Amino acid sequence: MSTIQAVHTTPIQGQKPGTSGVRKKVTEVLQPHYIENFTQSCFNTVKEREVLEGSTIVVSGDGRYYNKTAIQTILKVAAGNRVGRVWVGQNGILSTPAVSVIIREREGGIALGGLILTASHNPGGPNADFGIKYNIGNGGPAPEDWTNRIYEHTISISEYSIADIPDVDISSLGRTEFQVDGRPFVVEVIDSTEDYVAKMQSIFNFDDLRALVSRPDFKIHYDCLSGVSGPYARHIFHRILGVPLEQIKNSEPLEDFGGGHPDPNLVYAHDLVHAMGIGAEVQHGDYPDFGAANDGDADRNMILGKQFFVTPSDSVAVLAANSAAIPYFAGGLKGVARSMPTSTAIDFVGQKLGIQVYEVPTGWKFFGNLMDAGRLSICGEESFGTGSDHIREKDGVWAVLAWLSVIAYKNKNSDHLVGVEEIVRSHWQEYGRNYYMRYDYENVDSNAANQLMETLKNKFSEFQGQADSYEYTDPVDHSVTKNQGLRFITPEWRVIYRLSGTGSSGATVRVYYEKYEKVNLDLSTDQALGSIIDWSLKFSDINAILSVTGPTVIT
Ligand code: G16
């Protein structure tokens, strides 16, 4: 029989959830009581709203360093708070979208919520990043009123409850039951991919997908970047669809992501970018026809064609325009949405379809309310996030299946292989093209970043166009979210400055450039945006204020 102890603790600074949970260096998380304090603060927040006692929750993550240790601690705190049952993916592995599916649907959606251990696309290892966030009963990240409350608890906490149960073997499937102060506490180690794969089979036409991937003239290159998408990609693409295993790269989740940066963009997914012939001298080489990558926790995606990059903003617009390719959307789209800095490409699709287009602040949590209210079907973000109302997280593997469904659909009556580039170019012909680029200034001094934002705000009146600090009123619950980025808008282009909310140290400034062209569809991004970028560098004086010579990442 195990017992529950109340352990005295003191607040730990810096446990404020950012854009999607708390992300910190592992070295910081190693300090005593770190996981206990945060978990107890989440549970205290849950108890103010729901009945935690006897409930089922999900705990797992992207397989990064320190997750297994944190899971054992969370199990003990869960038992100490009288949670009835915890579902843990085998070896602590569940992608973020899989957690969302499990919360929403396993055993009829009985789970109250879940703790996801991930720092997403940030690197892993003893000297890299760790992350933790709470997802609520709709399967989505806790909204602002929850995360604000979690934070308040972290700065006022004085004790946590913990049970003295032994560590649980999470390496094999099965059920372990403990008696904790006379009541049962159950840990069920569940298959990491089963629920998620069944969900995908209910959304897509797998016969069409199988027919496409078995075409001799269609070759895939899928890079899991040693993140958690590997087991899902192998299950769906290799075991079910028959894609040769050698075309699914880095599909073993590693605690340090093989030393790489599990971020599916043109900089960090360099092996994939190279394999697809992007930037190569040789034109029309024997490159794969379709390339894809996911991030550490498999909620992000990057889509590539032969020597062709699809911007995330274009990607979601193309999927919305071709939703007829996906059986799940057979009844049509309820509405579409994007985060504010995401290009307006999807707006043109929404207008043509005659459906509502929503603009929300950066953060997937803002889409959840619209989905729960039945107003939103497909949405996406410039930060390589795409998804739909099938769950309440963005979904990297879903995005790959959605793109393959569109390709299969476009090839139904075609005498040649209609590839990614042809699909995107014909989309531009119909809707116009949103040239887009993002500059990231990573890990700069926080004071300097704040000074930059202040300087820009003070220059609103000098700007010959619309300049404001973006503020959002949620159309469902009318909550207001302020200070979500500084916008400089003319009828032809937009420049947006924003502080990232996902870094683990210092500050990251993002600058987003966008220009819409109805006719000139074949410019290079530099040609289209060069003069706007030059203007912005001068106007903001960003290099001087941040003491840098340029951005660290350009996408
Ligand atoms: C998170 C959020 C996304 C957001 C992204 C970038 O993604 O879920 O909605 O767009 O961060 O945020 P920021 O620009 O503040 O760094 P992820 O994949 O990191 O969980």
From TrEMBL:
Enzyme class: isomerase
Transmembrane regions listed in the UniProt entry: none
UniProt KW Coiled coil keyword: no
Catalytic activity, EC: 5.4.2.2
Signal peptide bounds: none
Needed cofactors: Mg(2+)
Record-level GO cellular component terms: cytosol
Keywords: Carbohydrate metabolism, Glucose metabolism, Isomerase, Magnesium, Metal-binding, Phosphoprotein
Highest taxon listed in the record's lineage: Eukaryota
Region entry Disordered, spans: 1-20
Keyword Membrane in record: no
Reactions it catalyzes: O-phospho-L-seryl-[protein] + alpha-D-glucose 1-phosphate = alpha-D-glucose 1,6-bisphosphate + L-seryl-[protein]; alpha-D-glucose 1-phosphate = alpha-D-glucose 6-phosphate; alpha-D-glucose 1,6-bisphosphate + L-seryl-[protein] = O-phospho-L-seryl-[protein] + alpha-D-glucose 6-phosphate
PANTHER family the record matches: PHOSPHOGLUCOMUTASE, PHOSPHOHEXOMUTASE FAMILY MEMBER
Family to which the UniProt record says this protein belongs: Belongs to the phosphohexose mutase family.
Name by which UniProt lists this protein: phosphoglucomutase (alpha-D-glucose-1,6-bisphosphate-dependent)
Organism: Blepharisma stoltei
Lineage summary: Eukaryota, Sar, Alveolata, Ciliophora, Postciliodesmatophora
